[in-house]
Amino acid sequence: MSDATRTDVFEEHRSLLLGVAYRMLGRVSDAEDVVQDAWLRWSDGDRSDVREPRAFLVRVTARLAVDRLRRITARGETYVGPWLPEPYLTAFGDTTPDTAERAVLADSVSLAVLVVLETLSPLERAVFVLREAFGFPHAEIAALLDRSEPAVRRLAARARKHVAERRPRYDADPAHRRDLTERFLAAAAGGDLEGLLDLLAPDARLIGDSGGRSRAPLRVLRGADHVARFLAGVAAKGVPDLTVRVLELNGGPAVLVLSGGRPDAVFQVDVADGRVRTVYLIRNPDKLRSLSDLG
């Protein structure tokens, strides 16, 4: 296989590999590092003997991601404040025509699901991602991970049960979610306390991720009143040279707040029964770096 052919084959599968790695790791930078390592392994040799490049590349990527996940399992013990995944720019509405497939992909990369996946073991997470997000058969996952098929089926069942028990319920309708996101943004930007209270569910919560590097709550805020008053307070203080963009992150509408053209915060909401149930606020500058080109 020529160098040009190897490059073309890898680029054909790059988005798949990045999707697998990101869902397993929750960080764009880590996922990109894993995909780069997979490229180095793929490019090291002729590879003419590889009959199924997609399976080979997914196997290498999944194993590298599992190894990296095992090395960073201490992240939750040392992280300052709540941990959220790094925002991931998606455009399923443009690139995935099938509605059912788009819904599955969007759900598997949502902040709500990724937070729950963080509590799985590395192998459970790998099996869940490959099975639920990308539809790999159990037998193929077993071959990819060097495990028996019965063992993979047990891992899949355990992971699926764990996620189902812990994931919050939310409405997936993109149009409804975008409408509520924009109304919520308008109320938050204007410091409209009553407007926020009208949009928030009584048991709403706000999860802020700053990593101790910028201002955000170091504990989860619970209750509509606490969440609304915090957001109204943020609006009262203002953001220098503020611009705001609504875009698709992690499979759903999100708000990117820019200060002086640089990413300052990302807001995203989960919606259920016509109300905002969860507000995600990401302000860790390391996690906003991948969005810098959007300023």
Which CATH architecture of the domain at 174-294 is right? Roll
Oligomeric state of this protein? single chain
- Going by helix content, strand content and strand pairing, the class is alpha+beta
Q: Helix proportion of residues, in percent? A: 40-55%
With strands numbered from the N-terminus, the spatial order across the biggest sheet is: 2-1-6-5-4-3
Question: What would your notes on this structure say?
Answer:
The chain has 14 helices and 6 strands. The protein has 295 residues and is of the alpha+beta class. Among the domains are: 1-72, RNA polymerase sigma factor, region 2, helix turn helix motif (Rna Polymerase Sigma Factor, Chain: A); 174-294, Nuclear Transport Factor 2, Chain: A (Roll). Helix 3 (53-71) packs antiparallel against helix 8, helix 8 packs across helix 10 (149-166) and helix 11 (174-189) runs antiparallel to helix 12 (193-199). The termini are far apart. The model is unreliable at 93-97 (pLDDT under 50).
List the helices and strands and how they pair.
Elements lengths: L2 H23 L2 H16 L9 H19 L3 H4 L13 H4 L3 H10 L2 H7 L4 H12 L4 H8 L3 H18 L7 H16 L3 H7 E10 L11 E2 L1 H14 L4 E8 L2 E8 L2 E11 L2 E8 L2 H4 L7
Parallel strand pairs: 1-6
Antiparallel strand pairs: 1-2, 3-4, 4-5, 5-6
Helix pairs in contact: 1-2, 1-3, 2-3, 3-8, 3-9, 8-10, 9-10, 11-12, 12-13
